[in-house]
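Quick one: structure for this chain?
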Amino acid sequence: MSAVTFFPNPTEPQDLPGRVHLPMPAEIDFCNAEQLLPLIMSEARARGDRLEVLVLDLTATSFMDSQGVRLLNDLRHRLRTGARLRLVARPDGVASRVLELTGLRRDVPVYDNLAEAMAS
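Got it. Here's what it folds into:
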């Protein structure tokens, strides 16, 4: 798998003050979860104290194993105090089902669409 990067999509809402949106890859598993953590944390740290909400967009994620769940759990614990993690996942998607089965959905709010997550 190649290096993971975040490419803004001009049709998606732009980052709002204090809020950052990062689209996640199609697969989050043992092959890339370890690489994603420092990339996401770098994006969060770049905002410093201004970061209020980090929104990870899982709508394109069609596969996620336990390492993906671990990544999300690690992220929520590593964000600076006061910053919140929000997830966007298709209700009928694999990521949403994995979040439900593992119980992470109870700890991290999951939204059906990006606009709601960004406004939260």
